[in-house]
TrEMBL record:
Gene3D superfamilies: Glycosidases. The keyword Hydrolase applies. One of its GO terms (biological process) is carbohydrate catabolic process. It is an enzyme of class 3 (hydrolase). One of its GO terms (molecular function) is 6-phospho-beta-glucosidase activity. GO terms for cellular component: cytosol. It comes from the Bacteria. It comes from Catenibacillus scindens. The keyword Hydrolase applies. Pfam families: Glyco_hydro_1. This is 6-phospho-beta-glucosidase.
Amino acid sequence: MPFKKDFLWGGAVSANQCEGAWNVDGKGISCADICTGGTHTQPKRITPVLEEGTFYPSHEAIDFYHHYKEDIALLAEMGFKVFRFSVNWTRIFPTGEEEEPNERGLEFYDKVIDQCLKYHIEPLITLSHYEVPLALTQKYNGWASREMIALFKKYCQVLFERYKGKVKYWLTFNEINSATGPFGGFLSQGILNPGTKDFMHPVDIPQLRFQGLHHQFVASAEVVRMAHEIDPEYKVGCMQLFATMYPLTCNPDDVVACQKFNRVKNWFCSDVQVRGEYPAYMKRYFKEHHICVKMEEGDTQILKEGCVDFYTFSYYMTGCISAKLDQRQAEGNLIGGLANPYLKASDWGWQIDPKGLHYSLNEIYDRYQIPVMVVENGLGAFDKIEEDGTIQDDYRIDYLRHHIIQMKEAVEDGGDLMGYTPWGCIDLVSASAGEMAKRYGFIYVEKYDDGTGDLSRRKKKSFDWYKKVIESNGEIL
């Protein structure tokens, strides 16, 4: 049996995509709350001032805030061992700068965590999952400013002290390396440059993004050290968007171009968070892109002393890299790259490559040799309710089955794999497009792109399939 006896099977969500209750019980406005709805053909917009009559998906989302008992009971019915979710920073500190935390926000997470523990489900908590307080964007331009470090530490300290003995696993920044590209500047860092309106095509200043990454690296390292001091049992991980790329051809120019991409997009952030120092290859990148990262005295020591305990990542697709710039891009592929002629794609143009997960797991473990966890993976698809009320999502089962098979291969190759939490275990709002139509869950939520729907829950065919996968520890697929 490839997987460990204590393998952590479960699923993952984020606060801004599922909780709703955007202004309830003292919660402040986050950057996600000013993103409008969208579709896979019409990008969502950013509106620095909330517009009357505009639909903002995060404001209600799937209303997990009021359905958490029902939802966690369904996860427990599937046999979840772990549930990855995030805390919304603005529930705890509405503007990020209050002296004292919002007790009503903490009480909500008390209840969520206790509900998980009731069913023997380990909480895996992401501290920052695309939920920067809007007030900190407006005052400091988010993580472009070093003031964010102390504010983030204060927020994390409250959670670490509150949940000592209840929570073991934490992640600092979700998909931190998304900020190596323009798409992540606002999404991940709360950096909003003048003139930006279209979420997918922001006005971009790379200097700010990479300075912001340095501030996040220091904050992450400080938080890791703090967690270990507060509770030696705490395990704190990094979280990367693993943008697996292949050379388009065996032309050496393509191979070198692919290596350059992988170094910056896939390895840079985790090299800092796992190894505790900036990799040498970034010196040339910074020079060629006119980026000068300002560091303060002591930063290098902080990075060295705050290395993460384990490595986690999202994996959805792969792409190809060519040295030629006139090649066709893979449609809908947010990580960039060219279409791979050997792969099929999802309804959103994301190329499906289970063997790429095997390859990626091997590359990650060979590089770092610390425990690894796949904390996002899944198929966004149009799900249809049949006349008898069932949802026959065999395509999702097929997708997940083949990815789990490739995880087994990586374990057989010697990798230390901790667990697996498919993304959007219950339907939620898409982060990239702001739509409900792109569904990932084992549980269907009656909510639609125009904001209508009664929020009722129903099991898809994949629900019972995944329950058997967990019961058999991955043997029955």
